[in-house]
Amino acid sequence: MIDLRVRGGLIYSPEAPIRSDLLVRDGVIAALVGPDEEVTAAETIDADGLVVLPGLVDLHAHMRTPGYSHKEDFRTGSMAAAAGGYTTWVDMPNVDPPTTDADTLRDKRELALEESLIDFGHFASGSNPETIAELAKAGATGFKIFMIGGGYPHDDRIAASSDADLWQSFEAIAPTGLPCLVHPFNQALFDLFSEKELAAGRPRTFHTRAEIYTNRDVVWSSAVETAIHFHDELGVRLHLLHTHAVGSIARIRAAKARGLGVTAAIDPKYFHLTEEEMQRLGPRSYHGAWITGDERRLETIWNALADGTIDIIDSDHAPHTLDEIAHMNVDAWKAQGGSPQYDDLLMVLLDDVNRNRLPLATLARLLTENPAKLIGHYPNKGSLLPGTDADIVLIDMEKTTRLTDDRILSKAGWTPYQGRNVKGAPVRTISRGRTVARDGQIVDGPEMKRRARFLGGVAQFKDRSACRPVRDSAS
């Protein structure tokens, strides 16, 4: 007996879209069949006129739990993610206590298993070489290193504050075969530039800080250069985040041309948020204003997405309360920056497709296949192949939406895209065969409890064609 038939949609595949029906049994894709084939199903979803994509896989979540759950928790964060078309999230270790050893990883995992609506993983801190092996054995999906410090959310307790720290972390992580995500940042240069600007009488507001943080290429590209050099020496599986600086993109493209196994991601706030939005909405929307106003830099980013220099679009879903964000108007060096992204991010990107900025097939690869491959869970995640998890999102490319705070499911309750009109939207999200969200709202019930699975680490090495699991990925 087939549990679900998704009828009449245009199904994404890496080669070419397929006009077919998709059958689901026991949470797994059973087959793709022709629309006229007689198959009895307990439930049929009419997907006529819709695009059928794999559920989105995000490798850059800040679910703020434990320690900061007034901003977000695993329940509300996964609700926002599901409503936005995501079926898998992996979060970062900058919580309290930070995810630095096997005990904190297990505690965090058990809490997320109780609360998350969809499957998930956890990146552990890679800043303490002594605990890397135990974290890998305990099932960490991978490791995250912050080359940036200066206070929460860039927690000094888990920052690699020197080249020697970074080298020792890479040296410890490389033998695990797990991905090492790096927030590249030259903290010393940022501090130097900050001191000069503030000494010249510039205000301590987000305008001053963002001009340095976002707009000084060398702060990013010099750190990328160091990380790539250490990767070349040590063989760690390096994945670079926040790839928006022209110099960073050039260095990553050159490394790939040399055959290095470096991958890179960008979060859309950097190449979407505008000067107009910053002036209208203040610090909730500041990150991209200097980038979207620079045609050369924006073109460099779009080209890098098109040619594969940037492998993944991640969310950097990083909620704070509006009161916390407002402090950036007072002292941005002591304030907490970041924004909730899950509710609206896919709609912003589908609008890009409708504006012919990138093909839908490219966007799908950046949001599904590539992130699943990075963590070693492709094709079970990030594909619609028979025998894989029935993680599915149905897309209406014609649906228009005005993005407003009152629609947001994230606990933060606001969007950096407030007031935007976009075209293209997820209309149904299916996690392992069950609808979890429809038209931006959660479809919840008793059967949703404890349905989430933890995606443990999968080691991958250059000289191996197969992956070996570090631990059983289903918990």
Short description:
This protein is of the alpha/beta class and 475 residues long. Helix 3 (132-138) links the parallel strand 10 (119-125) and strand 11.
What report would you give on this structure?
The longest helix has 18 residues, at 217-234. A hairpin with a 2-residue loop joins strand 4 and strand 5. The chain is an alpha/beta fold and 475 residues long. The strands form four sheets. Strands 8-9-10-11-12-13-14-15 form an eight-stranded parallel β-sheet. The protein has a seven-stranded mixed β-sheet with strand order 3-2-7-16-17-18-19, with helices on one face. A four-stranded mixed β-sheet has the order 5-4-1-6, with no helix packed on it. It has a domain at 55-374: Alpha-Beta Barrel (TIM Barrel). It contains 14 helices and 21 strands. Helix 4 packs across helix 7 (217-234). The model is unreliable at 463-475 (pLDDT under 50).
Question: Main sheet?
Answer: 8 strands, parallel
Helix content estimate:
25-40%
Number of helices: 14
CATH topology of the domain at 55-374: TIM Barrel
Give me the side-by-side strand order of the main sheet: 8-9-10-11-12-13-14-15
Query: Architecture of the domain at 55-374, according to CATH?
Result: Alpha-Beta Barrel
Oligomer: single chain
- Please indicate the percent range of residues in DSSP E strands (runs of 2 or more): 15-25%
Shape: globular
- Mean pLDDT score: 94
Classify the secondary structure makeup into a structural class.
Answer: alpha/beta
Any idea of the CATH class of the domain at 55-374? Alpha Beta
How many individual β-strands?
21
- CATH superfamily of the domain at 55-374, by name, is Metal-dependent hydrolases
Work out the radius of gyration: 21 Å
Low-confidence stretches: 463-475
- Give the termini distance in whole angstroms: 27 Å
